[in-house]
Protein backbone atom coordinates (compact mmCIF):
# COMPACT_ATOMS: atom_id res chain seq x y z
CA UNK A 1 0.00 0.00 0.00
CA UNK A 2 3.03 2.33 -0.22
CA UNK A 3 2.99 5.54 -2.21
CA UNK A 4 6.12 5.27 -4.35
CA UNK A 5 7.55 8.19 -6.28
CA UNK A 6 10.22 6.74 -8.54
CA UNK A 7 12.73 8.99 -10.33
CA UNK A 8 10.27 11.68 -11.39
CA UNK A 9 11.51 14.75 -13.23
CA UNK A 10 9.56 17.74 -14.51
CA UNK A 11 10.55 20.83 -16.45
CA UNK A 12 8.58 23.97 -17.18
CA UNK A 13 10.44 25.49 -20.09
CA UNK A 14 13.98 26.02 -18.89
CA UNK A 15 13.05 25.60 -15.23
CA UNK A 16 13.83 22.19 -13.73
CA UNK A 17 11.04 21.89 -11.15
CA UNK A 18 11.85 18.30 -10.17
CA UNK A 19 15.06 16.41 -10.87
CA UNK A 20 15.05 12.63 -10.39
CA UNK A 21 13.01 12.65 -7.18
CA UNK A 22 12.41 9.29 -5.48
CA UNK A 23 10.44 8.74 -2.27
CA UNK A 24 8.53 5.96 -0.57
CA UNK A 25 5.74 6.94 1.81
CA UNK A 26 4.37 4.18 3.99
CA UNK A 27 0.62 3.65 4.49
CA UNK A 28 -0.74 5.30 7.61
CA UNK A 29 2.27 7.60 7.79
CA UNK A 30 2.34 11.37 8.22
CA UNK A 31 4.95 12.62 5.76
CA UNK A 32 6.32 16.15 5.55
CA UNK A 33 7.66 17.97 2.50
CA UNK A 34 10.11 20.74 3.41
CA UNK A 35 11.69 23.21 1.05
CA UNK A 36 11.98 26.84 0.09
CA UNK A 37 9.39 28.42 -2.17
CA UNK A 38 9.93 26.99 -5.64
CA UNK A 39 11.70 23.86 -4.38
CA UNK A 40 9.21 21.55 -6.14
CA UNK A 41 6.86 20.49 -3.34
CA UNK A 42 3.62 21.56 -5.04
CA UNK A 43 4.72 20.13 -8.38
CA UNK A 44 5.43 16.77 -6.74
CA UNK A 45 1.97 16.71 -5.14
CA UNK A 46 0.23 17.59 -8.39
CA UNK A 47 2.08 14.81 -10.18
CA UNK A 48 0.95 12.33 -7.53
CA UNK A 49 -2.62 13.53 -8.09
CA UNK A 50 -2.19 13.19 -11.88
CA UNK A 51 -2.96 16.88 -12.32
CA UNK A 52 0.45 17.14 -13.96
CA UNK A 53 2.35 14.43 -15.81
CA UNK A 54 6.09 13.98 -15.19
CA UNK A 55 8.60 14.18 -18.02
CA UNK A 56 10.04 10.92 -16.70
CA UNK A 57 9.55 8.59 -13.77
CA UNK A 58 6.48 6.98 -12.24
CA UNK A 59 4.14 7.23 -9.26
CA UNK A 60 2.39 4.16 -7.87
CA UNK A 61 -0.08 3.53 -5.07
CA UNK A 62 -0.56 -0.03 -3.85
CA UNK A 63 1.48 -1.22 -6.82
CA UNK A 64 -0.73 0.50 -9.42
CA UNK A 65 0.23 3.56 -11.50
CA UNK A 66 -1.42 6.69 -10.18
CA UNK A 67 -2.93 7.25 -13.62
CA UNK A 68 -5.01 4.10 -13.10
CA UNK A 69 -6.01 4.70 -9.49
CA UNK A 70 -9.52 5.95 -8.72
CA UNK A 71 -9.76 9.70 -8.10
CA UNK A 72 -11.56 8.90 -4.86
CA UNK A 73 -8.23 7.56 -3.53
CA UNK A 74 -6.95 11.10 -3.13
CA UNK A 75 -7.94 14.06 -1.03
CA UNK A 76 -6.30 17.38 -1.88
CA UNK A 77 -6.00 20.59 0.08
CA UNK A 78 -4.39 23.19 -2.23
CA UNK A 79 -2.54 26.21 -0.92
CA UNK A 80 -4.86 28.47 -2.93
CA UNK A 81 -8.47 28.57 -1.76
CA UNK A 82 -10.74 26.58 -4.07
CA UNK A 83 -14.13 27.54 -2.65
CA UNK A 84 -17.07 29.15 -4.41
CA UNK A 85 -17.22 32.59 -2.82
CA UNK A 86 -20.99 33.13 -3.18
CA UNK A 87 -22.06 29.60 -2.31
CA UNK A 88 -23.11 28.62 1.21
CA UNK A 89 -20.67 26.45 3.14
CA UNK A 90 -22.98 23.47 3.66
CA UNK A 91 -24.18 23.50 0.06
CA UNK A 92 -20.74 23.48 -1.47
CA UNK A 93 -19.32 20.85 0.90
CA UNK A 94 -22.22 18.55 0.02
CA UNK A 95 -21.62 19.37 -3.66
CA UNK A 96 -17.92 18.44 -3.43
CA UNK A 97 -18.78 15.20 -1.61
CA UNK A 98 -21.39 14.24 -4.23
CA UNK A 99 -18.74 14.62 -6.94
CA UNK A 100 -17.01 11.66 -5.27
CA UNK A 101 -20.18 9.62 -5.01
CA UNK A 102 -21.11 10.37 -1.41
CA UNK A 103 -24.86 10.24 -0.84
CA UNK A 104 -26.43 13.63 0.00
CA UNK A 105 -27.79 12.64 3.44
CA UNK A 106 -24.43 11.16 4.44
CA UNK A 107 -22.61 14.24 3.15
CA UNK A 108 -24.85 16.57 5.18
CA UNK A 109 -24.36 14.51 8.34
CA UNK A 110 -20.57 14.31 7.93
CA UNK A 111 -20.33 18.01 7.10
CA UNK A 112 -22.26 19.07 10.19
CA UNK A 113 -20.12 16.78 12.37
CA UNK A 114 -16.91 18.32 11.05
CA UNK A 115 -18.22 21.86 11.38
CA UNK A 116 -19.06 21.08 15.00
CA UNK A 117 -15.63 19.58 15.56
CA UNK A 118 -13.99 22.68 14.12
CA UNK A 119 -16.21 24.88 16.33
CA UNK A 120 -17.96 26.60 13.44
CA UNK A 121 -21.40 24.92 13.20
CA UNK A 122 -23.06 28.32 12.75
CA UNK A 123 -21.17 28.85 9.48
CA UNK A 124 -23.12 26.17 7.60
CA UNK A 125 -25.43 28.74 6.02
CA UNK A 126 -22.84 31.46 5.45
CA UNK A 127 -21.23 32.19 2.12
CA UNK A 128 -17.55 31.31 1.85
CA UNK A 129 -16.63 34.96 1.20
CA UNK A 130 -17.99 35.84 4.66
CA UNK A 131 -15.44 33.61 6.40
CA UNK A 132 -11.96 34.53 7.58
CA UNK A 133 -8.99 33.01 5.78
CA UNK A 134 -8.45 30.60 8.66
CA UNK A 135 -12.04 29.37 8.61
CA UNK A 136 -11.94 29.05 4.83
CA UNK A 137 -8.92 26.83 5.32
CA UNK A 138 -10.89 24.59 7.66
CA UNK A 139 -13.74 24.38 5.15
CA UNK A 140 -11.23 23.47 2.45
CA UNK A 141 -9.89 20.69 4.68
CA UNK A 142 -13.39 19.29 5.23
CA UNK A 143 -13.96 19.31 1.46
CA UNK A 144 -10.79 17.25 1.01
CA UNK A 145 -11.81 14.46 3.40
CA UNK A 146 -15.61 14.06 3.12
CA UNK A 147 -15.27 11.24 0.58
CA UNK A 148 -12.96 9.31 2.97
CA UNK A 149 -9.81 9.24 0.78
CA UNK A 150 -6.98 6.81 1.42
CA UNK A 151 -4.31 9.46 0.84
CA UNK A 152 -4.60 13.10 1.84
CA UNK A 153 -2.20 15.60 0.22
CA UNK A 154 -2.09 19.12 1.68
CA UNK A 155 -0.15 22.15 0.50
CA UNK A 156 0.64 24.47 3.42
CA UNK A 157 -2.43 23.42 5.44
CA UNK A 158 -1.56 25.58 8.47
CA UNK A 159 -1.35 28.85 6.55
CA UNK A 160 -3.57 31.52 8.11
CA UNK A 161 -4.44 29.50 11.21
CA UNK A 162 -4.08 30.90 14.72
CA UNK A 163 -2.72 28.56 17.43
CA UNK A 164 -6.20 27.41 18.50
CA UNK A 165 -7.30 26.50 14.98
CA UNK A 166 -3.90 24.98 14.20
CA UNK A 167 -4.44 22.75 17.24
CA UNK A 168 -7.85 21.68 15.93
CA UNK A 169 -6.32 20.79 12.56
CA UNK A 170 -3.56 18.79 14.26
CA UNK A 171 -6.24 16.83 16.10
CA UNK A 172 -7.92 16.13 12.76
CA UNK A 173 -4.57 14.94 11.39
CA UNK A 174 -4.24 12.51 14.27
CA UNK A 175 -7.77 11.22 13.75
CA UNK A 176 -7.12 10.61 10.05
CA UNK A 177 -3.87 8.82 10.91
CA UNK A 178 -5.71 6.67 13.46
CA UNK A 179 -8.11 5.69 10.68
CA UNK A 180 -5.13 4.37 8.72
CA UNK A 181 -4.98 7.25 6.23
CA UNK A 182 -1.73 8.37 4.65
CA UNK A 183 -1.09 12.10 5.09
CA UNK A 184 1.38 14.10 3.01
CA UNK A 185 1.78 17.82 3.59
CA UNK A 186 4.16 20.67 2.94
CA UNK A 187 4.85 23.40 5.45
CA UNK A 188 7.35 26.03 6.51
CA UNK A 189 6.70 25.33 10.19
CA UNK A 190 9.52 23.13 11.44
CA UNK A 191 8.02 22.65 14.90
CA UNK A 192 4.84 21.28 13.32
CA UNK A 193 6.82 18.79 11.26
CA UNK A 194 8.71 17.54 14.30
CA UNK A 195 5.43 17.22 16.20
CA UNK A 196 3.38 15.41 13.54
CA UNK A 197 5.58 13.64 11.00
CA UNK A 198 7.17 10.22 11.07
CA UNK A 199 9.20 10.85 7.90
CA UNK A 200 10.24 13.85 5.81
CA UNK A 201 12.01 14.91 2.65
CA UNK A 202 13.83 18.21 2.24
CA UNK A 203 13.77 19.48 -1.35
CA UNK A 204 16.17 22.03 -2.77
CA UNK A 205 15.84 23.18 -6.39
CA UNK A 206 13.89 20.10 -7.38
CA UNK A 207 16.10 17.50 -5.73
CA UNK A 208 15.79 15.58 -2.47
CA UNK A 209 18.80 16.64 -0.42
CA UNK A 210 17.93 14.63 2.67
CA UNK A 211 15.08 12.29 3.60
CA UNK A 212 14.03 9.53 5.93
CA UNK A 213 12.47 9.24 9.34
CA UNK A 214 12.58 12.40 11.43
CA UNK A 215 14.77 10.60 13.94
CA UNK A 216 17.28 9.44 11.31
CA UNK A 217 17.40 12.86 9.62
CA UNK A 218 18.10 14.59 12.92
CA UNK A 219 20.87 12.10 13.65
CA UNK A 220 22.35 12.24 10.15
CA UNK A 221 24.80 15.03 10.98
CA UNK A 222 26.64 12.94 13.57
CA UNK A 223 26.56 15.95 15.89
CA UNK A 224 24.79 16.19 19.20
CA UNK A 225 23.34 19.23 20.91
CA UNK A 226 23.74 20.10 24.57
CA UNK A 227 21.41 22.45 26.43
CA UNK A 228 22.90 23.77 29.63
CA UNK A 229 21.75 26.21 32.31
CA UNK A 230 23.77 27.04 35.42
CA UNK A 231 22.85 29.21 38.38
CA UNK A 232 24.09 32.81 38.18
CA UNK A 233 25.79 32.50 34.77
CA UNK A 234 23.26 32.87 31.93
CA UNK A 235 25.95 33.43 29.27
CA UNK A 236 28.17 30.47 30.26
CA UNK A 237 31.05 32.12 28.42
CA UNK A 238 33.45 29.23 29.08
CA UNK A 239 31.25 26.77 27.18
CA UNK A 240 32.62 27.80 23.79
CA UNK A 241 36.21 27.27 24.93
CA UNK A 242 35.76 23.52 25.32
CA UNK A 243 37.31 21.31 22.66
CA UNK A 244 34.76 20.24 20.02
CA UNK A 245 32.02 22.46 21.43
CA UNK A 246 30.45 25.40 19.57
CA UNK A 247 27.82 27.62 21.16
CA UNK A 248 24.93 27.81 18.65
CA UNK A 249 22.37 29.95 20.47
CA UNK A 250 21.59 31.49 23.80
CA UNK A 251 18.03 31.34 25.00
CA UNK A 252 16.43 32.87 28.05
CA UNK A 253 16.43 29.62 30.03
CA UNK A 254 19.52 27.84 28.71
CA UNK A 255 22.51 27.97 26.37
CA UNK A 256 22.65 25.55 23.45
CA UNK A 257 25.88 24.20 22.00
CA UNK A 258 26.76 21.71 19.27
CA UNK A 259 29.18 18.93 20.13
CA UNK A 260 31.29 17.70 17.21
CA UNK A 261 31.35 14.00 16.23
CA UNK A 262 33.82 12.03 18.31
CA UNK A 263 33.42 14.21 21.39
CA UNK A 264 31.48 13.13 24.46
CA UNK A 265 28.69 15.58 25.34
CA UNK A 266 28.81 14.36 28.94
CA UNK A 267 32.14 16.21 29.24
CA UNK A 268 30.16 19.47 29.13
CA UNK A 269 28.37 18.49 32.33
CA UNK A 270 31.61 17.28 33.87
CA UNK A 271 33.29 20.60 33.04
CA UNK A 272 30.46 22.57 34.63
CA UNK A 273 30.68 20.54 37.83
CA UNK A 274 34.48 20.90 37.96
CA UNK A 275 34.00 24.68 37.80
CA UNK A 276 31.73 24.50 40.82
CA UNK A 277 28.60 25.46 38.82
CA UNK A 278 25.17 24.64 40.17
CA UNK A 279 23.59 22.97 37.14
CA UNK A 280 19.92 23.82 36.68
CA UNK A 281 19.38 22.07 33.37
CA UNK A 282 21.38 19.63 31.26
CA UNK A 283 20.06 17.90 28.17
CA UNK A 284 21.57 15.98 25.27
CA UNK A 285 19.57 15.95 22.03
CA UNK A 286 19.98 15.91 18.24
CA UNK A 287 20.08 18.99 15.97
CA UNK A 288 16.64 20.36 15.18
CA UNK A 289 15.08 20.11 11.73
CA UNK A 290 15.43 23.87 11.44
CA UNK A 291 19.21 23.59 11.86
CA UNK A 292 19.41 20.71 9.39
CA UNK A 293 17.27 22.61 6.89
CA UNK A 294 19.56 25.64 7.10
CA UNK A 295 22.59 23.41 6.67
CA UNK A 296 21.23 21.79 3.50
CA UNK A 297 19.20 24.56 1.91
CA UNK A 298 19.86 28.02 3.22
CA UNK A 299 18.43 30.23 5.90
CA UNK A 300 15.11 30.81 7.60
CA UNK A 301 13.73 34.32 8.01
CA UNK A 302 12.49 33.92 11.58
CA UNK A 303 10.66 37.26 11.50
CA UNK A 304 8.22 35.92 8.88
CA UNK A 305 8.84 32.18 9.42
CA UNK A 306 9.45 31.77 5.71
CA UNK A 307 12.26 29.91 4.05
CA UNK A 308 14.85 31.63 1.91
CA UNK A 309 16.98 29.73 -0.61
CA UNK A 310 20.77 29.72 -0.55
CA UNK A 311 21.02 32.15 -3.45
CA UNK A 312 19.47 34.92 -1.38
CA UNK A 313 22.35 34.72 1.05
CA UNK A 314 25.20 33.98 -1.34
Task: Report, as a whole number of angstroms, the end-to-end distance.
Answer: 42 Å
Report the β-strand fraction as a percent range. Answer: 25-35%
Please report the total strand number as a whole number.
16
Task: Name the poorly predicted regions.
Answer: 301-314
Q: Which word captures the global form?
A: globular
Average pLDDT rating: 90
Major sheet summary line: 6 strands, mixed
Task: Report the radius of gyration as a whole number of Å.
Answer: 23 Å
Counted by DSSP, the helix tally is 9
Class by alpha and beta content: alpha/beta
| Strand and helix order | EEEHEEEHHHEHEHEEHEEEHEHEE
Residues in helices, as a percent range: 25-40%
Spatial strand arrangement across the major sheet: 6-7-8-3-9-10
Structure description:
With 314 residues, this protein is an alpha/beta fold. It is built from 9 helices and 16 strands. Helix 2 packs across helix 3 and helix 2 runs parallel beside helix 4. The two termini are 42 Å apart. The C terminus is likely disordered.
Amino acid sequence: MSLIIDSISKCFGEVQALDDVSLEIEPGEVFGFLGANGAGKTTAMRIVLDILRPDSGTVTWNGRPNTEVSRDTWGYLPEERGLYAKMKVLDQLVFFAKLHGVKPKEAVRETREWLERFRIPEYADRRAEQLSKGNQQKIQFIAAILHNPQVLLMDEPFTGLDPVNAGLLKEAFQEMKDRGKTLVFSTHQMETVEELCQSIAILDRGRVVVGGTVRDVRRSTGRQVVRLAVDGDPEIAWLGTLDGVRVSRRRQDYTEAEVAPGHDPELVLQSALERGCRVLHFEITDPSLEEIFIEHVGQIDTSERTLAPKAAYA
